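Query structure, 155 tokens:
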């Protein structure tokens, strides 16, 4: 996101809109999906050579849960983004890097269902169930089979 300083000489500027996430280089693991970045910023020149930009930036991120790999959606909310940039003779100030840094710093290290107020779904395939051991059952009937016959003949 670039802000042209010439646009600000007449006074502060409110910037509101959505920015495509790609220029912010937010893909770290390769399996994240970012929504557009919704921004609501107030830009002004302080003194003669400092650009101050304040406001909020919101987005959402879909990423596999670090525990169960099911996709989860994290809300990324920067309610008080602030960037103060001194300038000398630039025509525009690029806020891409400070926005990227603030977004990445706001993310949990290993996003999981716990970060979105939930629990990982139970994984039914991993529940252990004991199977009947056919071989042991067969051996048991062979061992007692003759005695059972003897008992049946006596009755
Ligand atoms: Zn999970």
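Result returned for the query:
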């Amino acid at each position: 996101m670039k802000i042209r300083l010439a646009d600000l000489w007449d006074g502060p500027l409110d910037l509101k809109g959505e920015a495509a996430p790609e220029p912010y280089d937010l893909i770290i693991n390769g399996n994240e999906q970012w929504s557009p970045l919704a921004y609501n910023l107030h830009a002004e020149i302080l003194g003669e050579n400092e650009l101050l930009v304040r406001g909020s930036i919101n987005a959402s991120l879909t990423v596999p849960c670090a525990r169960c790999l099911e996709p989860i959606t994290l809300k990324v909310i920067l309610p008080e983004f602030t960037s103060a940039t001194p300038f000398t003779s630039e025509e525009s100030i690029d806020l891409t890097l400070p926005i990227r840094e603030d977004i990445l710093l706001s993310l949990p290290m290993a996003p999981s269902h716990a970060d979105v107020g939930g629990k990982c779904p139970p994984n039914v395939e991993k529940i252990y169930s004991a199977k009947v051991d056919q071989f042991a059952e067969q051996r048991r009937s062979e061992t007692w089979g003759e005695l059972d016959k003897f008992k049946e003949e006596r009755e």
